[in-house]
């Protein structure tokens, strides 16, 4: 597929390095007894400004060391690590103005404005991130990879960060140091822990989607069955149609008239004696 669009440029004046002071002697950070001090695992493929961003997002970071020859950032967790520089001109040490207690900017409170209210004034707050520990690729609670886009090539881990910051659907990112690729995560599920691979870094975005979304309980309305009322069975009255016997009309029997023939006395003829 087509490569993703380039990350948006940072807003004017949004330089995290302005919150730090470089040591007056050049070189890597050193304590008063010339020790390296207390530092976290170096972050690879980072610019000096990326390093400042990472430190600003940590409440335990007092400053950082940036190694120009390998583009690596090292966050320091003790105020005693900034006594002087080591003298090596490809290494730079910066102490944080205000110290580690300044912490990252707090998340913006939820707005209660109505849609008709005027938008808040001032520039938008920059996106903030927290590295997931132990260091490694982003993993869900069950060890899955989460919801992520296919990794794509970018020059630095800062470019990966900027790409995520410019997206409303990015919940954090994963940087593959062995291949200089960026993986954008589109849900909060993949930030439970790291996979313990030092060549993979996982950062959860704090200003959007950092807290799991808890769905409101679904309350089902009780299903009330209408009472079933058996209608009384009423036997319809059986109405027998009256049987009307057709009147029997007897045909008159006409007796043939008996005609008696008149009796005719036959003459009595006496024979002569």
End-to-end C-alpha gap: 169 Å
**Number of discrete helical segments:** 2
Shape designation: elongated
Helicity level, as a percent range? under 10%
**Total strands:** 13
Oligomer state of the chains in this structure: single chain
What would you report as the Rg, rounded to the nearest angstrom? 52 Å
Structural class comes to mainly beta
Low-confidence segments, ≥5 residues, pLDDT <50? 6-13, 103-121, 210-223
Rounded mean pLDDT is 75
Strand coverage percent:
15-25%
- Listing every helix as H and every strand as E from the N terminus to the C terminus, the arrangement reads EEHEEEEEEEHEEEE
**What strand order characterises the main sheet?**
7-13-10-11-9
Major sheet size, sense and barrel closure: 5 strands, antiparallel
Report on the structure:
The protein has a 5-stranded antiparallel beta sheet with strand order 7-13-10-11-9, covered by helices on one side. The protein starts with 19 loop residues before the first strand and ends in a 68-residue tail after the last strand. It is built from 2 helices and 13 strands; from the N terminus they run ββαβββββββαββββ. It has helices at 48-56, 157-165; strands at residues 20-22, 29-30, 63-67, 72-76, 84-85, 91-96, 129-131, 138-139, 152-153, 172-176, 181-185, 193-194, 200-205. The radius of gyration is 52 Å and the shape is elongated. Helix content is 7%, strand content 18%. The protein is mainly beta and 273 residues long. Strand 10 and strand 11 form a beta hairpin. The longest helix is centred in the first third of the chain and has 9 residues, at 48-56.
